Amino acid sequence: MSVVAVPGSKSVTARALFLAAAAEGTTVLRRPLLSDDTDGFAEGLTRLGYDVRRDADVWLITGRPEGPAAAEADVYCRDAATAARFLPALAAAGHGTYRFDASAQMRRRPVAPLTRALRSLGVDLTHGEAEGHLPLTVVADGIKGGEIELDASLSSQFLTALLLTGPLTAEGLRIRVTGIVSVPYVEITLAMMRRFGVTVARDGDTFAVPPGGYRATDYAIEPDASTASYFFAAAALTGRTATVPGLGADALQGDLRFVDVLRRMGAEVETGPDATTVTGTGRLSGLTVAMRDISDTMPTLAAIAPFADGPVRIEDVYNTRVKECDRLEACAENLRRQGITVETGHDWIEIRPGTPKPVEIACHGDHRIAMSFAVAGLRTPGTTFDDPGCVKKTFPGFHEFFARVRADWGV
Ligand SMILES: O=C(O)C1=C[C@@H](OP(=O)(O)O)[C@@H](O)[C@H](O)C1
Ligand SMILES: C=C(OP(=O)(O)O)C(=O)O
To answer: Which reaction does it catalyse (predicted)?
Structure first.
């Protein structure tokens, strides 16, 4: 048995930072995630002129419902799509000139549906190089509000950015969504907005966000469920037990549902009020599973798939092609290098059983490719990585932490 206390949720930390910045008063954030993405997000807020004070485990943010204090700012969002998509929307509700740029990887990822929606609300927004991509400049003069349509079929983050920004507009927002992925992330957004004082009314595909109402609070960040997937998968793969405290029946994050996939494959799963436990049983069955709602855990499953006793087919994950890298192809490439038979289509991947050979994993600068193949490496000694440090996006200490869990399990 092993208690695996994983770091805080990236998604919850990013939202909490936004909400704290937008709220009246000083918010206390407890156990935020310390990683490149969340550091970039917090630094972005500081550059925009918000008062963010950070001690290791407690961050204090003083909100400004009127918008950024800085009249002008340059914000570098690094690899973080949360920062690159949420912060321009926050800035647009203020008054000033704000420039946003990001790493080469993040510059390639789309922001067009969001920037189109902001423009349709009257925001003066220009793309610096390629239309629909960072860098971009917002010349902000407040947002009146009104009705918009939004295509969220490439990323739910466009919707989250607009929902979070709604209370900062003069009249509120009505957002009609025409397609959507990663729905559980929108549920995190709505639940956290409620914690900061704002209730969004939902009628089918339409979200009505009232103006005003964010209030500072004392908020404890739950552990990261996507990170937990590596330890649950590792337990299933090695016949060990992983208990992740802080992720129980009331957890906000949809990615905790990855344990249902492991249960279908043969692992034992116990969800308690304050923790989730996975125990490997020595059996790992093949399956077909749609992962549209929990696609950050697609690489976790793909990497361990060769050890199943039948094919593993993962469907409805087109949006994993527009993440830190094209994750469908990155998983397929690494599995093929390991000697595994893999097929991919527009939005799916199918992996045949086999015995992976130890190879150097091509991480493509993607933390999830590195962490997923590290898990599979438990059964493939000699696996190495071309860029082990890319885990810093969400879990800078991953390799050391993983080594400690392994030592504890004796694997
Ligand atoms: O809103 C969020 O915090 C996130 C939403 C998801 O992205 P998409 O909505 O782009 O699938 C997820 O993959 C990402 O890691 C975090
Ligand atoms: C897709 C991811 O990150 P983001 O979109 O927040 O950059 C991720 O963490 O897997």
So the answer is: 3-phosphoshikimate + phosphoenolpyruvate = 5-O-(1-carboxyvinyl)-3-phosphoshikimate + phosphate
